Predict the structure of Probable GTP-binding protein EngB.
Amino acid sequence: MIKKAEFVVSNTNPEKCPKPDRAEIAFIGRSNVGKSSLINMITGVKELAKTSQKPGKTQLINHFMINDQWYMVDLPGYGFAKVSKDTRENWEKMISTYLTKRTNLCGVFILIDSRLEPQKIDLEFLLWCGTEGVPAALIFTKADKQSKTQTDKNVKAFLKKTEEIFEEAPDYFVTSAEKGQGKEEVIGFIEQLVEE
Ligand code: GDP
């Protein structure tokens, strides 16, 4: 259960994140995938993460303290159509440094838009995590946007693609920030990770 969620700090430099003295879980995904909405839904704090960041805005690593016990981290999204090469390279450097060097990181959730067929950019990011040994799970977002049948179809298609990459399918959750769907499941999974 999440009883308390507070903003701690924003960073552009992964080396300057808070002291890695407690378990940490991160969220990432394509811009507009619904990451901020999901973080707000999960924590029950309406504007904890800022929704709908525009491309070109500073890319920040945002730390939140949960229950005075663990860190939840909102990472800058990928896949903006129109960002400069510099911005993209900056993002890559920042994210790869954070994900590979953060000693207290227990897992990263990769958010996937449940309305879409498998997207190359998401699969590539998942593959990169696998290669680097970063433990990743999937969250399919915006499930309320279409029928359950359509959501299931897209989820299945994505999982099938992951079978081409990994022996074991990643853990996954289907959520809707709009309806509160998947909240308990995601929190339960995080609690297991942070208590290990
Ligand atoms: P971010 O850029 O990944 O942080 O995405 P946001 O959380 O800002 O969401 C992008 C857009 O999708 C906003 O207009 C949200 O209201 C909408 N959105 C996010 N999650 C959901 C959801 O679960 N259901 C519906 N219907 N819309 C959502």
Notes: The two ends are 16 Å apart (CA to CA). Residues 85-101 form the longest helix (17 residues).
